[in-house]
Amino acid sequence: MAAPPGRMPVMADVARAAGVSHQTVSRVLNGHPNVRAETQARVLAAIEDLGYRPNSSARALVTRRTGVIGVVAVDTAHYGPARTLTGIEHAARAAGYYLSVVTLTEASAEQVRDAMDHLARQAVEGYVVIAPQRSVLEGMPEWAGGAPVVAVEGGEARELPVVCVDQEGGARAAVRHLLGLGHRTVGHIAGPRDWLEAEARVAGWRRALEEAGAPAAEPLYGDWRPRSGYELARRLVQEGRLPGALFVANDQMAVGALRAFGDAGVRVPEDVALVGFDDVPEAAYYAPPLTTVAQDFGEVGRRGIGVLLDLLESGGAAAESAAREVVPARLVVRASCGA
Amino acid sequence: MAAPPGRMPVMADVARAAGVSHQTVSRVLNGHPNVRAETQARVLAAIEDLGYRPNSSARALVTRRTGVIGVVAVDTAHYGPARTLTGIEHAARAAGYYLSVVTLTEASAEQVRDAMDHLARQAVEGYVVIAPQRSVLEGMPEWAGGAPVVAVEGGEARELPVVCVDQEGGARAAVRHLLGLGHRTVGHIAGPRDWLEAEARVAGWRRALEEAGAPAAEPLYGDWRPRSGYELARRLVQEGRLPGALFVANDQMAVGALRAFGDAGVRVPEDVALVGFDDVPEAAYYAPPLTTVAQDFGEVGRRGIGVLLDLLESGGAAAESAAREVVPARLVVRASCGA
DNA sequence: GCAGACATTGTTAGCGCTAACATAGACGGC
DNA sequence: GCCGTCTATGTTAGCGCTAACAATGTCTGC
Known about the structure:
By secondary structure, the first copy, chain A, is α/β, with parallel strands linked by helices. The first copy, chain A, is 43% helix and 16% strand.
């Protein structure tokens, strides 16, 4: 690299060094045809030599494309959303886009609007919103200033392109598995009512019971955290309402439940068969190892970006169809369900 | 909002609507003094009316400031880095910056360089690198194209501004607590050798033992994952080398260890007192509840951005001092250590 | 009532890049 | 050998914004 003359080199400097016009440099940079191989080599050498870097702002100004995708994520210690974000990032970068991220402290429609506003100021070309909650989904415009929006993890959303995991199918598989083991019915500790995933898991649980003609008690609603799983499970035991099988809406609450059962002398799986959801890395090492439902978050992120890029390329024509991609969930059987 | 005439309104449109020059619009937008209140109101009304949004590329082109901070994160299911990222995001947004994120699939120096290159192309003003591993730290230039770099979670780094948790202090507190309970020595299951945090925890463990004049067996090295905790703990039991107290370098491996002990009929805390590290949300609900060391990741993120912004404002003058901020860790005593 | 300071607004000139058009030479067919 | 076509390159004109300077008024003190 040549020592810069006090400021960053610009295209004109490269042009001068290579003995061509700045336009030819631009052509080389953008892979235009009709540049002599020898000229191209000279330009590339000059670029290398000067340590030239194209100015993205100048390019964006004239092309009207920033190459940035905005992501709205929820600030959460939850396993899923965090993994989804990295899936999105990899897919976006592979496609040559930059990623601008905003996280929400609270899932209110207002915060979603603020977040998208922040991203709009940066002139992002499109949005991916990780929207596991109804309130997030509702705060979301469909086209934010002409830029397309894709919801991820946003259950059965509005007329909006959505990519999500088949929560209902996963829940159904879990409950059917428990019923198949001979349980008369299966109880349910659900996630918070506002969460679409929680709702879909309730629906899957209910559907599996209905299909089997099994009775369904009202589910108990927790908040995803271990504490609520602990308390709700303890309540079931104390009130003598503990079913022979229990489907808990996520692994964290399932851990809480395990603990409550341990404290109360209720054996898992002998006295109660337990199934969780998420397949966190620890799940296989709980006592007993937790049967659970695994989700492919990386795939969700990839498809989310895929749908967005399609929309971007088609100029929104594809939005008519309101793509709805469903990634399958997978039951992982371990000891906690008794087989 | 008035219907746009087919294209996004620009500053000149606002100026026309408000009956002023575009420069006056610019002044209003940038909060310059010397604009009559009445004029300002007219301009703001026109902006609102037209739904005008300043073009960030054009502004960046002339000011040479993009307002973007680049973050290099590691792609990981680990609890800490994910939380740190959201801490960084909140602090950056509060300061009026945008955040561009790149995640690494693998912590190699090459990937770090690629990531920073990607961000440089976007003309970020500064970098925050979440660098829990030595290889990440080493792949990191100090000033990337004139932009300052701050390492976060990067243990005892090079002459680079660093913000990290007092891993050594946390480990030391944990081990001292165990020794204080009457144990002759404390064993250690460590994290991977390449990880600075793992190294610091080993150092803290060793130091506490030395200070107490207690013997130190060689630590066993895991990979942070539950499985390795399980296998190493099992090995200790099988080989009859299990100490009365064990410090495990993170909660995930501690869960694996708990499971191994359960399988082998080793009681916690009666036969072995156990302490983990991280304080994941589940820790209080393991059987027995896990004594562990909590880290304030949000604070780490905030301080990381704080240091970077200082550097940005001072034009790097502050880099001389190579800031090194240490966030304290906190021992959380639960049942697994026996008191 | 007038100089000088100050407040308010307008005008001009780029920032670094790409798109569109202009130009000049090379080539091939008849 | 001349014209049309194609290839390789240069020239010009902005993209939308801010900084610098210029040009007005407005007010103060004496």
